[in-house]
Write a structure and sequence with these properties.
465 residues, alpha+beta, Beta-Lactamase, Helix Hairpins, Heat Shock Protein 90, 3 domains, 16% strand, rod-shaped
Length: 465
């Protein structure tokens, strides 16, 4: 590309220089020639008054020598002849004498100027002034040399500037191409520093944005796979408990083996989804919802997904209550009847409930009591899950995805990301039952546009065993 740009600059500048240089050279030659001829005519005109006063050869020679030291000024008298060495052709001289006309014409080796002068007695004398070729081209070669030098300098300068500009463009293009190849080979950290012309800078910025977006999409994809896999562990837990109830039957061993194999496959899927290839910050929340920085939960005009947390918690708790009864676990429910609408889908809220309650079944022994509650505040909805187990020794570490010991570490992360998507938080403490007390806070969604105010009712409490 640099060679092409330099070639274009050379061709264009050469054409421009020649378009000015050729006419200018011809103009210089014409001006020099015109100046020489004009000077000769002026010398002849200066000698004419002397010739009108006297025809003395000595006086005329002295006057001619004073006007032209090169002896190119010659006077042709009617009777005496030429005073000096004449170079005028005889035909031109005769025409000037007979026709009494001034003649200025090019002759071999120069230019001849003939000026007739009428003497007393109606006789005609002719003043001849010869301008040699050297006089007609004096300084032309030097002027042409200077113009040629300037033209060459202009061409060289333009080629140099074009090469420098081309080098900048080529360097930017090469870096963009290298980064593109690296990204195509799997280097998701490949970036390019925007530089060069505005178009290439825009291309570099767009490339970086594309690479960043790819990282975000890959991270979301792997997180989604991990979350969906974690959701499958809920029915898997039910199957595992059912197989334990079948202990001693012919089918129990086969069912238990199938459950263990399925659980192993799910762990492998989760581990693969959390591999180092899933780099880059997450650009979306749980199951495609945006994080709190992407939208304001509960804002005016919000047309996103909505879910009644209390209703979803009732449904999912009813499912887990069956398993709790089989393991002799007491379940305490404390669910508000007030509106608990949040900016998440029912599936997202159900995933949070299943993740938290599922952790209770997986990490506490049979017979351990647990409770589920939904509390409405003026601005938020709180989902509370607590148990009577050993609790969580390192709450901060448990909230970090994949850092919990003895598990995949996805359950609390699902809850954290869902809460963050609405602008809420997750807190892990020790509760009244003696074990873990997890509070997931969701920001309330915008009020429905119907204009009806939500009727506040009493909190329903019931206890299931």
């Amino acid at each position: 590309m640099r060679r092409s740009l330099a070639g274009v600059a050379l061709a264009v500048t050469s054409m421009v220089a020649l378009s000015f240089l050729v006419p200018l050279a011809a103009l210089v030659m014409s001006l020099v020639k015109e100046q020489g001829v004009t000077a000769a005519q002026q010398r002849g005109a200066a000698l004419a008054p002397v010739l009108a006063l006297t025809t003395d050869p000595d006086a005329l020679r002295e006057s001619a020598a004073g006007l032209d030291s090169a002896d190119h000024l010659v006077v042709h008298l009617p009777r005496t002849g030429a005073l000096g060495r004449s170079k005028a052709p005889a035909a031109l001289l005769a025409r000037a004498q007979r026709g009494r006309e001034s003649i200025s014409q090019e002759v071999p080796d120069g230019w001849i100027c003939l000026q007739p002068v009428v003497l007393p007695g109606d006789e005609v004398a002719v003043i001849e002034n010869f301008v040699p070729e050297a006089e007609l081209t004096r300084g032309v070669a030097e002027s042409w040399a200077v113009m040629s030098f300037l033209a060459v300098g202009l061409i060289a300068g333009s080629v140099l500037v074009a090469d420098r500009l081309g080098a900048k463009v080529v360097r930017s293009s090469k870096r963009l191409a290298q980064a593109s190849r690296a990204l195509g080979l799997g280097d998701l950290d490949a970036r390019v520093e925007p530089m060069g012309p505005p178009e290439l800078r825009d291309a570099g910025i767009a490339f970086n944005a594309m690479a960043q977006r790819m990282n975000e999409l890959l991270a979301v994809e792997r997180e989604l796979v991990a979350d969906l896999s974690h959701r499958l562990r809920t029915p898997l837990t039910a199957l595992h408990l059912a197989s334990e109830r079948m202990a001693g039957t012919p089918e129990s061993a086969r069912v238990e083996a199938a459950v263990r194999e399925l659980e192993s496959e799910l762990r492998a899927i989760i581990a693969a989804a959390r591999s180092p290839l899933a780099v880059g910050p997450m650009g979306q929340g749980l199951l495609g919802t945006e994080p709190s920085g992407g939208r304001r939960a509960g804002g005016a005009g919000d047309t996103g997904p909505r879910s009644e947390v209390a209703e979803v918690v009732r449904r999912r708790t009813a499912f887990w209550a069956v398993l709790a009864e089989q393991q002799d676990r007491s379940v305490r429910l404390d669910i508000t009847r007030e509106s608990s609408s949040v900016g998440l889908s029912d599936d997202d809220v159900a995933a949070v409930v299943d993740a938290l309650v599922g952790n209770v079944f997986r990490h506490t022994s049979e017979g351990t009591a647990f409770g589920v509650g939904v509390v409405r505040t003026p601005q938020t909805v709180e989902l509370v899950v607590e148990d009577g187990g050993p609790g969580i020794l390192e709450p901060d570490r448990a909230l970090a995805r994949g850092s919990s010991t003895g598990s995949t570490g996805l359950g609390l992360d699902i809850a954290r990301r869902a809460a963050t998507a609405t602008g809420g938080t997750v807190r892990v403490t020790r509760g009244p039952l003696g074990g873990a007390h997890i509070t997931v806070t969701f920001a309330l969604a915008a009020r429905a546009p119907s204009g009806h105010r939500t009727r506040r009712t009493r909190v329903a409490r019931r206890r299931t065993r």
